[in-house]
Amino acid sequence: MSGAIRVLSEEAVAKIAAGEVVERPAAALKELLENSVDAGARRIEAAIEGGGVTRIEVADDGGGIAPDELLLALTRHATSKIARAEDLGTVVTYGFRGEALPAIAAAAARLTVRSRAATADGAEVVVEAGVIGPVVPAAQAPGTRVEVLDLFGRLPARRAFLRAAQTEAAACHDVVLRCALAAPQVAVRLRTERGEAFASAGTGDRADVLARAYGPAIRADLVAVDYATPTVRVTGYVATPERARATRVGQTLLVRGRPVTSRAIAYAAESAYAGRLPRGRFPVFVLAVDVDPAAVDVNVHPQKREVRFADERLVAGSVHNAVVRALEAGLRPPGPPPAPTGEWVPARLAPALPSARQTVVPWPEPSRPAAVPAAPVAVPAPVPARAGGVSPGFADPVTTASPGGAGDAPDALLGGLVALRQVRLTYILAEGPDGLYVVDQHAAHERVRYEEIGRADATGRAPARQRLLPPLVLDLPPALVEVAAARGADLTAAGFDADPFGPASVRVREVPAGMRLPGQVLRDLLEALGDPTDNAPAAHRRRALLACRTAVRAGDALGLAEMGAILATLAVCQAPATCPHGRPTVRRLAWDEVGGWFRRRA
Ligand code: ADP
Ligand code: MG
How many other C-beta atoms can be found within 10 angstroms of the C-beta atom of residue 518? Predict the structure, then answer.
């Protein structure tokens, strides 16, 4: 094998992207539906055959595509929805990557787009076996009709991963329902070989959509949600506990109008039912969360299915409160549980993997002293983050290794790690020459950020700043205002320009560029700098706080490239084994031990 690096052909790139965007028929259908909603459609007619594998058709009465733009719509990264990278932060349409149509075109045996914009004649273009045909005139009502035949015709490997047509059809049905819930003002219909599978009326009321999906009787069991804080608004409906189901199928979360999945937000809503639901039952709800566009990143997932909040706990808290209030207002006080058996646990406290706990051998297995030790990578004695003493790792990272990391051989091997995948949205599973590694994504990235900040300090490089016009006046407890007065130099070093403004507020003129929720970070920084129980030097506290607030968190979805970057930068850290607060970043399971399990010789 030659190790030469090649730039992939345009076609190969398109096919790889196709595999991501068009994971299964429902994913392609979702993209087409979103395009129709983006185009301002009032009516969308979708049809599938063979679970969407054989055929998907989506017709809408939206704004259409002018003939001279049809070809552009099939070009990768061509989009009418954002013009500049900066627009990403404020995008309000579903689409913005300009990837869906080209991806489908690259995957499918045949894609036909027929469209008519209000001021133009109808036109059609056919992509067959990846070859884009000419744009030809075609009869078409105002709007767009996209037809996909044999979705995986050109990605035969992908087909092997598909499940029965029935399962794929169910996933398509689910996507249509979520689309109708996200855009209740649009009449959305789905047909299959067996006739009409779903139709919403486009009344604008999500309760009407739920009634179409679950039957009109559900109306009596829905409680409206409408809750707002200065930063978050939560609206929608929650169903009474009797409507709960065995899975989360009945749950729809919308963030800025977009259907998303978020375990944390779902838990926040579910935990509001605590005491009203038995374990293993999941409430039905549709909840729309609206936050400032700057506080949420929708561009973290190829299918835009996941979101990342700047402050997930804040959003989760609002959702929880919203549902608690709705249930309190709409229900009688929690009575005896509806089922006679089972232990009652709030959803939030239910273990995620209750049965696995008993059957999976703990890792590393603790009860086998004779085995080769699992050789954890430089795990120091546990040090509480605020022990009243000096936190480990505060010394200048440029010159000093961590106490735990010193002399531990596996450190040197961190450079050879290959990220395999993310697990539980919290850990990076990686393969190394000498074993399997589990890396805590937050702790590891915190360490990386901590040393980066330390190096920037050492070179006198000030962080890039962003001017606030007008300045932000942040209300604070007077004690923190005093910290701000006394610690001006630390604030400057952190990239803030903030000074006292009366006894209970500070005026913030500049914040670190690109920082999310800088007001909150400034407050936390002041708290850390003013903490009387922490003896660590101020520079350490500042770096640790900033590292924590700018590192990825548990719950953040990471791609392989991001994970690879964290591992690679961790490997070159001075003290890679612990986070700035002393938690371990990485543990290793040596291949020797794995071999021992199976009685393999090295
Ligand atoms: P994106 O939605 O990210 O812009 P797509 O590949 O899904 O990328 O679509 C590319 C472009 O084609 C869109 O930006 C839009 O201009 C146009 N388009 C696609 N579908 C429709 C539709 N149903 N109605 C009108 N325009 C459409
Ligand atoms: Mg799109």
Answer: 24
Q: CA torsion 474→479→485→490, rounded to 10°?
A: -90
Ligand at minimal distance from the CA of 91 is 1
- To test ligand 1's pocket by mutation, which of 42, 101, 132, 148 has the most ligand atoms within 8 angstroms of CB? 101
pTM equals 0.56
3-class DSSP assignment, residue 417:
coil
Shared domain for 305 and 398, answered yes or no, is: no
Q: Are residues 139 and 220 in the same domain?
A: no
Same domain, 176 and 42: yes
Q: Give me ligand 1 centre to Cα 81, in Å.
A: 8
Q: Are residues 410 and 271 in the same domain?
A: no
Final residue in a domain of this structure, among 349, 380, 409: 349
Per-residue pLDDT tens for 363-372? 333 333 333 3
How many whole angstroms separate alpha carbon 193 and alpha carbon 56? 11
Same domain, 161 and 216: no
Q: Are residues 45 and 163 in the same domain?
A: yes
Q: Which residue has the tokens 């590192």?
A: 551
Query: Diameter of the chain by CA atoms?
Result: 80
DSSP 338-385: SSSSS----GGGS-SSTTHHHHSPPSS-TT-TTSPP---SS-PPP--T
d(CA 451, CA 578): 12
409, 433: one domain: yes
Tens of pLDDT, residue by residue over 221-270, are: 999 999 998 889 999 999 998 888 888 889 999 998 888 888 889 999 99
